[in-house]
Design a protein that fits this description.
Strands 1, 2, 3, 4 and 5 form a five-stranded antiparallel β-sheet that branches. Helix 3 (about 35-45) packs antiparallel against helix 4. The chain has six helices and five strands. The protein is rod-shaped, with a radius of gyration of 27 Å. The protein has helices at about 1-5, 15-30, 35-45, 50-85, 90-95, 100-115, and strands at about 115-125, 130, 135-145, 150-165, 170-174.
Amino acid sequence: EEFRRKYPTGQYAEQAAKRAEQLEWNSVQNSKDPAALTAYLSKYPTGPFSQMAQRRIQTLQSAAQATKDREGVLDALKRYSSAVERRNLDGILAVWPGLSKRQQNTLKESFKRFQSIKMEFRATEAPQITGQAAKVLCQRSVESVDQKGAHTNTDNVTVELQQTASRWVITSIE
């Protein structure tokens, strides 16, 4: 860079410019920071490495979105479990807005019957996310206490979710 500033029209100016771009590309090509790659593209929008930089940015952004979606899906399961444990029907409906009246009534009866309920979903596989829809296979554990004592039930379920404008919500548990 210094050479290029001192000799902008010199005999080796073009070679120096290519070398400077190569060195800058070498410094950012494996970066996990899209901003560093974007800065490189701003400086060299039509350079020989610009397409690679664009692909790298897209890859990083896709990976970041996939991580965000995965975390959002798992967060929905935690929000549902927490609402069940607090016996909060409004909280349950916030995470599962399509819950049928029959299912709501079943939950209300469970809330009356049990002194305590603890629920946990453990994903047995990574969530399968396609666009705005997700599916996750889980082991569901429910521990409850009623007048007859403690009860534990563990089963495998498939939870389907849909992404709304602000977060993931459950559409079914089977």
